[in-house]
């Protein structure tokens, strides 16, 4: 995680900047991104997969600065909406390094993809094939991939498992849907099928399901060659690489994953007499999750029966993950030293429902009180990108820290922003 050091002016720091100072200067709740950590993680991926394309999954978190960092570190980008595409391209991301996903691409999404010239569109359902082909300009040709469901169950929670036929994404390997779609795509002169894609789930800490999926994908590539005489050049194995949200939790070992995937690919291709396709991976969480920290101010402390509730100035509108997936975080006190012994407390948000819990039953100093600051590590992925406007609480600002300086990347949503969107009607 974003490495915390102790700077000269005291208190935990990230990127050489004191977290308490950030809270004072930019107000709370606020999200802090360690630019060095993001870049380092991008480089670790490039080093682990030198022969592959590494595409950052923009859904985890996107901002113009993030786009620049990822571009400069040599990664591609996985997007799934016109919004993500426009932000990326207007921030200077090369469109040919962008891949568009989505199980229900809107006319706006497809229009933006073709206008901006994104590198690949990933076909997710049969009805898309003719739609995309019809949208390609005369004499144009769009590179596409087909998303396959390999029948592998993996992922940290039911809601983020996408490798089996009981969920909405992709085309089934088991019932022949993928094979059928592939032959239809091959029959479209406006579409160029570059390869196959699969994404089996998210927050996966085990290498095994990736290897099983990879073998099945290679098997399908061999069948495509046999049936159509076409050798597909690309295999995108998606993302889903798991990280630890609390000390001691398992995380996917990247070096092991890269080594075993490479070996499995070489072996599978040799057995099938296939040329080794160019591999791609699409990590989101593993690039940005550990590089982010959320800072909150304590607004109220209440003892109810056996429970101590510590209520902060954010909550499920900036982090819906505990409510959605039962994820457990490890908040801690910053900004002052406490000599009080630890006490079990439940950190809750400010929203109007009982399920607005950020961290149940965590150890915090016994003297925690209103005005204190709490930091929640590993907050960089799928928090701000899933933030809502619940209770018309404006979304937090995003601050980047690097080499001892802090700068704002995304400003806080103000009361004025909230008011102005509603035009009265
Ligand atoms: N590629 C595709 C096609 C995806 O659908 C996803 C994530 C990724 C790559 C990146 O997965 P990652 O490496 O970040 O695990 N909101 C949930 C996670 C949803 C993931 C959706 N797809 C959460 O907060 O855990």
Automatic annotation (TrEMBL):
Keyword Flavoprotein carried by entry: no
N6-(pyridoxal phosphate)lysine modification, residue list: 59
Membrane-spanning intervals of the chain: none
Entry keyword annotation includes Amino-acid biosynthesis: yes
Catalysed reactions, semicolon-separated: meso-2,6-diaminopimelate + H(+) = L-lysine + CO2
Domain Orn/DAP/Arg decarboxylase 2 N-terminal: 36-289
Pfam families the UniProt entry points to: Orn_Arg_deC_N
Annotated EC: 4.1.1.20
Pathway as given in its UniProt record: Amino-acid biosynthesis; L-lysine biosynthesis via DAP pathway; L-lysine from DL-2,6-diaminopimelate: step 1/1
SUPFAM superfamilies: Alanine racemase C-terminal domain-like, PLP-binding barrel
Swiss-Prot/TrEMBL keywords: Amino-acid biosynthesis, Decarboxylase, Lyase, Lysine biosynthesis, Pyridoxal phosphate
Coiled coil: none
Cofactor needs: pyridoxal 5'-phosphate
Residues noted as binding substrate in the record, renumbered to the chain: 285, 321, 325, 353, 382
Binding site residues for pyridoxal 5'-phosphate: 240, 282-285, 382
Quaternary structure and interacting proteins, as annotated: Homodimer.
NCBIfam families tied to this protein: lysA
Recorded family membership: Belongs to the Orn/Lys/Arg decarboxylase class-II family. LysA subfamily.
Purpose: Specifically catalyzes the decarboxylation of meso-diaminopimelate (meso-DAP) to L-lysine.
Protein name (database record): Diaminopimelate decarboxylase
Organism annotation: Streptomyces virginiae (Streptomyces cinnamonensis)
Lineage: Bacteria, Bacillati, Actinomycetota, Actinomycetes, Kitasatosporales
